[in-house]
Amino acid sequence: MTALKVNGRTHQLNVADDVPLLYALRNDLKLNGPKYGCGLSQCGACTVIIDGQAVRSCVTSVGAVVGQEIITLEGLGDEKNPSKLQKAFIEEQAAQCGYCMNGMIMRSKVLLDNNPKPTDGEIRQALDGNLCRCGVHNRVVRAVLRASQEA
Amino acid sequence: MNIQTNRRDLLKAAGALVVAFEIPMAAQLASAADDLGPGLPGSLKANPKVSSWLRIEADGRVHLLVGKVELGQGILTAVSQICADELDIDIKRLRLTSGDTWLVPNEGTTAGSFSMPDCGSAVRAVSADARKILVDLAAAKLGVDADKLTVNDGTISSPDGKKTTYWDLVIGDEMKVDATAKAPLKPYAAHRYSGKSIPRVDIPAKATGGQIWIQDLRPEGMVHGRAVRPPQYDAKLLDVDVAAVEKMPGVLRVIRDGNFLGVIAEREEQVLAAAAALRRNSKWELPKDAPTSDGTQDWLLAQKTKDIVIKDQAKPANLQAAATVEATYRRPFVMHGSIGPSTAIGTLGADGVMTIQTHSQSVFETGNAIAMMLGVDKTKVHMQHHQGSACYGHNAADDAAADAALLARALPGRPVRVQWTRNDEHKWEPYNSAMQLKIKAQVDAKGDIIDWDYQLWSTAHGTRPGNIAGNLLPARHLAKPFEFPVPVNGGPPNYSADRNAIALYDFPGQKVTTHFITSYAARVSSTRGLGAYSNVFAIESFMDELAARAKVDPVEYRLRHLKDERARAVIQKAAETFGWSKWEKKPNRGRGIAFARYKNLAAFCAIAIEVEVNPSTGKIRLLRAVAANDSGEVVNPDGVKNQIEGGMIQSLSWTMKEAVRFDASGVRSEDWTSYPILSFTEVPPIEVVLVDRPGAVFLGTGEASQGPTSAALANAVFDATNTRVRDLPLTPARVKAAINA
Questions:
Q1: Overall fold of domain B3-208
Q2: DSSP state string for B220-283
Q3: ipTM of the predicted structure?
Q4: Class for domain A84-150, per CATH?
Q5: Is-above-0.90 flag for pTM?
Q6: Cβ-defined contact of B647 to A38 (cutoff 8 Å)
Q7: Which of B598, B589, B595, B434 is nearest to B532 (CA)?
Q8: Which of B198, B654, B680, B683 to mutate to test the interface with A (most CBs of A within 10 A)?
Q9: How many CB pairs under 8 A join A and B?
């Protein structure tokens, strides 16, 4: 058994240490936030926050994060009570399909935690490794700016 | 697992999405009855029963059923807005089911910006019909003339205070009648939802981890399947050690059927390990002399072609040419590259029905193709659409559905979930065809165009399943393979490879010839805009070349050749928004403009871009871009802006970066490192201006901006460097080489 601390709760999972964290979160804990996009740490769709850092869960093994604080999109807020950042994404309509949105929000959350008033350029730098194919980049930047201004 | 229960749960999930989406991506929706032409509008022709589309439900809701599906473009919200307006109900009363082949009207494929002409116009007419049926029923019940009754959120009232509701009136078969499309439509000013930027209700779930994607479905008893694709197109499986893989942890089935290899395991990491082992344990014979991406342009011209003259307007004999100008433009293979790889879940039930959850654009045709592949009656395949990562045309969604069916057949009773790997998605999805475009123009003494000869070479832009098993990738790999049909080129008025090949300008003479290639250098099919992207790139680049040659401002040069008022209006609006007349040239900076009317019958879109080019590296920095767009009546302004801007950014990525690479060992563009796309730091500020035309036919938006964006960029690079780059993509190496040439 492996103990994973996710969104403030400890879960006992019957998975091998080398299983990618993404599959444990999605398949064992049935969390929808982190997405499979590439499995190669190239697109950012699977991003979670571990001990305050944005981490690509598709290339992180379960064994490597035992005892650490893992936060997924669900840990920020839910539909009834979205976090300030999630609310800003909703208000800016920062999506077309929205498949990349998990990674955009999780990476931006870490940015704002470390830099509460980022510039447009700092936001773009922080998100440069998160891919979007529909072309909502500027909406995402506006959402992060909105969240920072409301903070 | 109880498939029926699961199916209902899935339908409930779909119902919860109801009002979730919004905005028309596009399209042509008649706003006045006389725009509809004869007969029933859109998909009503094939599905005339009112009850096929609308059901008044006992619980105070209205159930709208549509055959078109959500692709991330917002179509379901657009039709919800239209339905709520015509039916006089609050939009929250709507429950919507889409893309379930056992429940909804068959509306064919969701593609080509046809959702609004087909589905939007049908929903508008059938909703107005339904309202009339209900008001007539109320008139009889209340003993009041129908024209004296008013409707407010489904409650029908008479002037003297008598009331009834839709839900009181409909108890049986009242809606099981044919639509007439003769009921009066709401005047524009009376719209409560259409014309407004109503927020999408799917975004809250997507921003918070709600269960909304096909990837998030986890039916009871679900297991994981993967197909192991050949190393290369047309490779043949010589030998594979199946027994070793069957012994691996969690493995439930290994399937070998000709060149099709697949595996099913209890857990996802187990199936991935088993698929990797299966790949290692297999030996393949590779085809010899396969085409390469480096040789694509020569390959295009060397193929046997079907030559079709699609326009032949002779130049009046009295016009004298002062000069002849020629240019050739080239475009490589480009991929859809959805961020979420294709996914499907197949379940073979005890009743022999194969149920497939899919994000296919063509649930009916793909279901029929899968039935053919499985050798079963088409009533034995039940397709249910769920949202996948955005789709920009015919990607691997249908192939994943076919994979799921083949694997699920080997393990009856268990839902088998298939998610393609990034590597498979990059290497096996059907690409947008490489093309070559040659233009020769005759100009008069002022430099104006008097004759125009346009020739294009292209492989297919449409190999969708279309009821035929041979169009499904895995079906071609089976021991008894289904033959890949010879592709055809779509004809007028929409065209396919030659979409937008006819210039909209008023040239005295114009001839356009399509050289259509039925063979393949790489797997190809429909990608956003089909041939329009390449054709507009060539036409609008060449217009810019001719303007420069005539020493005329490129805005002025276009307007000189263009009578269409709406076309002129978007060009002028883009120029004005950009600040074209006040713009000052600075070193290494340039501006470019381009225009197209998508398909020559849909949206009008003009784009202006400013760039800075580093002459020593050839690197393009995008400074800003503006768009002016006329899609007719706008149903959701924010949705239209989102589509136009997104299309521009995707086109900038295609135009600056993208080319699929393949060689003797197969496709080499196998991930985001070997196939990079535009990133946050490269995306410029973008301003989109809408020309709203209340009461005008809806023209479609989703595919309007890609073509003009490509040429506007190339034209800006020319303006910055005085160098014309005619081969896509405009990589730093290519721009630098052109500058130094």
A1: Aldehyde Oxidoreductase; domain 4 (3.30.365)
A2: TT-EEEEEE--SSTT-EEEEE-HHHHHTSTTEEEEEEETTEEEEEESSHHHHHHHHHHHHHTEE
A3: 0.98
A4: mainly alpha
A5: yes
A6: no
A7: B598
A8: B680
A9: 169
